[in-house]
Amino acid sequence: MNLLTETGSTDNFIPDDHPRSESLRIRHKLVEGFEKGLVAKAGLIAHGRGEAFDYLLGEKTIESAEKAIQASVAQMLLCKHPVISVNGNVAALVAEEIVGLSEAVSAPLEVNLFYRSRERELAIQEALLEAGAKQVLGVDLDHRTLLPGISHQRRYVDDRGIANADIVLVMLEDGDRTIALRAANKFVVAIDLNPLSRTALAGSFTIVDNLIRSIPLMTKMADKLKGKDVVELQQIIDTYSHQRTLEDALRVMGQSYKQVAPMLDSIIVAIKDKQKK
Ligand code: ATP
Ligand code: MG
Is 19 found in the same domain as 128? Predict the structure, then answer.
């Protein structure tokens, strides 16, 4: 039995002073999303892969990711048809926040699933509408069309959305589809905690960060950049380097070895404290 669900409330179960309380709360949200039919089983595992990289980032938005957010939002504001691709994990973790970003950058939300089922599509649509979305693309079968170059269920896109988009924001995305979107001449902004995934590499710009932190930061950035003129936005984009961003994320992760000595010290103190009690 899952102890997190046994209590019926995470607040009762996860003490605030637990060093991983935030991470446990996020996991619980995902489990709830799974129980509501939003999240696929494989989505739970994909989250775990992300968590491991987030641990190495120190579970914070690093400076190079902030720069990636700035350049990505500038590009989204400059493009004519931005679209935000949403899957089960996104709907379970940041439904309201993604609706906020959609409004801030005037980009419709499109449901796009790797493990597609009619039930999950409808459940995600419902969660987004409940969170305040005015329209959700990717669910109406009359508007379903194909993205060339992909053989699996992810080839379906909406003719009002990704099919005609010039820029697409993706997260927890599959490498094949990111490559197919690029091959279709779309600008792809990826949010991915793994700087070495094919999605992170194939994105035109990649934000190496937890989407839970970066989505609200993107909305704030959009509000800030909206007042800037085209030349200023273009300059932000022109001076940005995708490769440097990926390298910097790996550099930060590599530096985490320096935490071992101080962390060992604090664990010894914790053991001694317990022995005194
Ligand atoms: P790719 O297909 O791009 O090569 P992959 O097969 O290694 O990637 P997948 O399981 O297909 O990985 O996709 C999940 C990706 O999403 C992983 O790279 C993981 O790091 C990332 N991820 C998981 N949770 C989050 C999150 N909350 N925020 C940002 N990224 C996340
Ligand atoms: Mg993959």
Answer: no
pLDDT score at 14: 67
Is 82 found in the same domain as 12?
no
For residues 18 and 24, the answer to whether their CB atoms sit within 8 Å is yes
Residue 8 has pLDDT above 60, yes or no: no
Ligand nearest to the CA of 176: 1
Answer yes or no: is the C-beta of 175 below 6 A from any ligand 1 atom.
Answer: yes
Query: What amino acid occupies position 242?
Result: H
pLDDT score recorded for residue 13: 62
Give the pTM.
0.93
| Residues surrounding ion ligand 2 at CB below 5 Å | 174
Shared domain for 247 and 190, answered yes or no, is yes
Q: Determine the structural domain holding residue 33 and report its residue range.
A: 3-57
Q: Is the CB of 194 under 6 A from ligand 1?
A: yes
Same domain, 8 and 92: no
CATH code, 162: 3.40.50.12640
CA of 26 to the centre of ligand 1 (A): 16
Atom of ligand 1 at shortest range from CA of 26: 27
Residue 139 and residue 184 in one domain: yes
> Would the CB of 193 count as within 6 Å of ligand 1?
yes
pLDDT, tens digit (0-9, with 9 covering 90-100), for 131-160:
999 999 999 999 999 998 887 767 899 999
Residues 228 and 180 placed together within one structural domain of the fold: yes
For residue range 88-99, what is the model confidence (pLDDT) as tens digits?
Answer: 999 999 999 999
DSSP class per residue in 150-161:
--SGGGEEETTT
The CA distance from 106 to 80, in Å, is 10
Positive/negative CA dihedral, 52, 272, 21, 249: negative
